[in-house]
Amino acid sequence: MKIGNFDLNKDGIYIIAEMSANHNGCLQNALDTIKAAKEIGANCIKLQTYTADTMTLNCNKEDFIIKGGTPWDSKNFYELYKEAYTPWEWHKELFEYAREIGIDIFSSPFDKTAVDFLEQFNPSAYKIASFEITDYELIRYTASKMKPIIISTGVATIDEIQDAVNICRKVGNTNIVLLKCTSSYPAPLDEANLKMIPNLAQTFGVVSGFSDHTLGSTASIVAVSLGAKVIEKHFILDKSIGGADADFSMDKKEFAKMIQAVRDTEKLLGKVDYSMTDKRKASRRFSRSLYIAKDIKKGDIFTEENIRSVRPGYGMHPKYLKGVLGNVADRDFEFGNSFNFYSINKVIIK
User: Which of 152, 209, 157, 151 is nearest to 185 (CA)?
Assistant: First the structure.
């Protein structure tokens, strides 16, 4: 599966820098954030495409007041989204700039009009936010554009996840990534449940990844070790900019360290490989093999005192020791010489 030119099967972990509201209403901040994401090695910068009116109603009734211990408590939904949205008139310049400097770019649409608007930019993928996983019509319409579709699963039941996957497949889109996500801001470590990452891939037959709302980079590193192919993390140029998502976003220095840690983790995980590379063969000189531990005269018996398994590894494999012991030396053997098949005329292997 590819996202743009990035092959998830061959090219490693696809790292998404989520800009969200971290431009804080300033186009130059948005452009600088894209540049910074490229400089630190992120594979993608991700936007969010909505307006307050496409997200909610301009209403002050109790249902529309945010509460529950979030960073946005006491605001109403309309106020939050009016403050946090990325102006649609910026999108053309943001897409063009990202492509000019060589970083992938796509967005999370929050309704059909956003999908239609984004199609003109031919994004490499679409992202369905965790709170939109229950919007089946949005998923259906987005998947029908036949771009890879990345879906966060933070608030979904297992049946809703299966429904979302089935909807994508029914319209012919099988390029599906499911992200484990804890929809708290920030997310407590003990609610991350990263063991779900391989389970998502196995249960639903898709690529799995992690949308990380925890503080720090530990969770993302563990996610990669558990098989995550995509990592998404909120990214801000500088926390002093402020904004709706600043408190749980990584700045440039922090994000760069996370990327390096993820790349190091990829190297550490490597691949399943039992072959004897040149380096491994060379290292075998430090392994054990059979050596003459005492001078042996012709006619002497090979014993554990005069034939031993020791370092280095230039002699006969230690597995042959039992077959050698008890045989009669057909000539003299000098202390410190390696013992091998050419040392004797006959070895009985037991």
Answer: 152
